[in-house]
Specification:
By secondary structure, this protein is an alpha+beta fold. The chain has 2 domains: 92 residues, no CATH class; 212 residues, HIV Type 1 Reverse Transcriptase, Chain A, domain 1 (Roll), CATH 3.10.10. Strands 5, 6, 7, 9, 10, 11, 14 and 15 form an 8-stranded mixed beta sheet that branches. Strands 1, 2, 3 and 4 form a 4-stranded antiparallel beta sheet that branches. A hairpin with a 2-residue loop joins strand 16 and strand 17. Helix 3 runs parallel beside helix 7 and helix 4 runs parallel beside helix 9. The longest helix is centred in the last third of the chain and has 17 residues. It starts with a helix and ends in a 5-residue tail after the last helix.
């Protein structure tokens, strides 16, 4: 842990044992001075274990989980779905994965300016004007369709995962909402994958489907994701940066009609459904979304705005230009029916 570990130890009434002339190496390869160690009880998914926590001088993140954590909790990470499970718990925990590249982004963008009151008011006015409150059905872009091509002719059928009554109620609620929005429909497919309700940091649940077996037999597009070094070069001289989180727009990308059946999933107590829009966790989804975002931005905005996975990043050195390009970027999304 970072120095924040001292505060955590105090709250937990844990005694910190000072360390002298001790050094640890972090995941990025940097040596860090060890300030002390403390035994703390850690709870993940309702499972508790007592572990020895190391506190270091400087750390990019409040806490990093090491090999000892994964061994103690018998934890398994599913990188494609960004979830973690621990032995003794059925709960799927949502992860936000940090990487050395992400650390570099934070270190590079040192010239980013805070907005004053007038600038903040101008930005809020732009957003209120450009992004109206959605009061109709979810939009659907006509620029692309995601297509699933499988190697296997034999349908994959999996039983649904058992869940608690509380989670099942939340699952049913989200299914009814997606039916009303035209995102899913009832299915008679021979394919079936289980639903996974992933708990987010705010306590709410994200509706996901475990498509690992389907993904294993899916052909994936070779469309390239943007290179992180190129992104870092654009951020180097940035003074104003805006990021637009586009992750909710997955459900505004239609599926190709011949792909519906592959996405079928079973909901305990409700039956079989299939997606009409692109779901999370599907192989090839990020490449389709990257291609869509690149087309939305286009060559006119590309010098100032670029996409990376499900984020649009707008970078300029003056606030007036930044405001203009942010408005143009939002308008480009509205024209492609990606503004709801």
């Amino acid at each position: 842990m970072s120095r924040y570990g001292f505060e955590v130890a105090e709250r937990c009434a844990a005694r910190v044992i000072p360390a002298y002339n001790a050094v640890a190496k972090t995941f990025s390869g940097k040596p860090e001075s060890i300030l002390g160690r403390a035994e703390m009880t850690i709870e993940i998914g309702g499972v508790r274990h007592t572990m020895l926590v190391t506190i270091v001088e400087t750390l990019e993140y409040a806490c990093l989980l090491g090999v000892d954590f994964y061994r103690t909790f018998n934890a398994i990470v599913y990188p494609r779905e960004n979830i973690l499970t621990v032995d003794g718990s059925d709960e799927k925990i949502a992860l936000e994965v940090a990487s050395p590249s992400a650390t570099s982004v934070c270190a590079t963008a040192t010239g980013v300016a805070n907005l004053d009151e007038q600038q903040a008011a101008q930005l809020n006015e732009l957003l209120d004007r450009a992004i109206p409150i959605a009061d109709g059905p979810l939009g659907c872009t006509n620029l692309t369709k995601h297509r699933i091509i499988v190697d296997s002719a034999k349908p994959i059928r999996q039983r649904y995962y058992s869940v608690s009554p509380k989670i099942e109620e939340e699952m049913h609620s989200q299914v009814r909402g997606m039916l009303a929005d035209g995102i899913i429909r009832r299915s008679d497919s021979q394919w079936s994958s289980p639903v996974v309700m992933v708990r987010k940091a705010n306590g709410k649940y994200r509706f996901c489907v475990d498509y690992r077996k389907l993904n294993a037999c899916t052909k994936v597009s070779a469309y390239p994701l943007h290179n992180m070094d190129a992104i870092l070069r654009k951020l180097r001289d940035a003074r104003y940066i805006t990021t637009l989180d586009m992750s909710a727009r997955y459900h505004q990308v239609p599926l190709h009609e011949d792909s519906y059946e592959y996405t079928a999933f079973t909901v305990p107590g409700l039956g079989l459904y299939e997606w009409l829009r692109m779901p999370f966790g599907i192989s090839g989804g990020p490449a389709t979304f990257q291609e869509l975002m690149d087309r939305v931005i286009g060559p006119d905005l590309e010098p100032f705005a670029f996409s990376y996975l499900d984020d649009i990043i707008i970078v300029l050195s003056t606030f007036a230009e930044h405001l203009e390009k942010a408005g143009a970027c939002v308008e480009a999304h509205r024209r492609r029916k990606l503004d709801d």
